[in-house]
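seq/struct pair 1
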Amino acid sequence: MPHPNTDRPTDPVPAAVEPAPPGPAAGPERPRRAVPLGAFRVVVGLLFACHGASALFDWPAVAQHAAGSVGSWPGWYAAVIELVGGTLVMLGLGTRACALICSGSMAFAYFTVHQPHALLPIENGGEPAALFCWAFLAIAVTGPGPYALDAALRRAR
């Protein structure tokens, strides 16, 4: 339709404001990314929860580092964070906050327990702490995905 004062057709969207292209979460890429990211979240959460259960209850295996008595700092608190945080991340419930807390707990463990012995994780035995720290930070940034309990609860509302 031409503009009333000119012969030029009117553009429904001004040239300076173009519609944004769809983001990475839109289109056919989303299902392909959702499954591996959800699987990553579940596996990391499960392994972390098992680590906490092992430290607290000697189950499913005897832990290398026991949690100590109830309320002892930092071992017992770290084990509770591992068990509860890992379980919640695995289920996808409060994922971003839980993953951030788990990441911080592993950063604390790395810098207080491992790093004083040597700089690199390969030298000081801190590979699991460093890997869990970065894995949980990645989960906190990317979120739980559509196959999480949070997403199911949102859909149910």
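seq/struct pair 2
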Amino acid sequence: MNSKTYEQMLNDPELSHLLGQTLLRDDLLTEILGDEAHEILYWAGKRLGRNYRLKSVDDIINFFAQFGFGNLALTKESKNQMDFEITGEIIKTRLSNDADADFQLECGLIAQLVEFISNKQSEAENIKRNIKKGIITIRVSSSDEQPIDAIIPDDFFEIKHADAADTE
């Protein structure tokens, strides 16, 4: 992170709370993991998906927003394929700071969560990035086969939805 990015994030109420995440994610982890960062972050995302099993695509969308990954939207769905877009100020900032910013953590996380929800082996890849608009497109491809590693937690991670929080 350079001084300009730091100042931009610090002065933006949507981004200031993400300074620590950005420092760890885009500076420290890439430094420590080196050439293996891409693969390790993908599998780290899959691990997060195993630890935070969700019930629906709507839960995944809310999880992304609540945990500061960006605004996730399902843009296309067919039998064995789903396309998601991630947008938001954090995506724009990461891409403007580094056009090659890595989104493998998000790919692994989405792949694992979709695998649980669909009960089909799933993999994900970043198929497109629009640096100017700050949009990342992730495609999840699923087979008709059931997951190999059926590690199923005892319960689901319960996401609080904005509309439910308003009524409490």
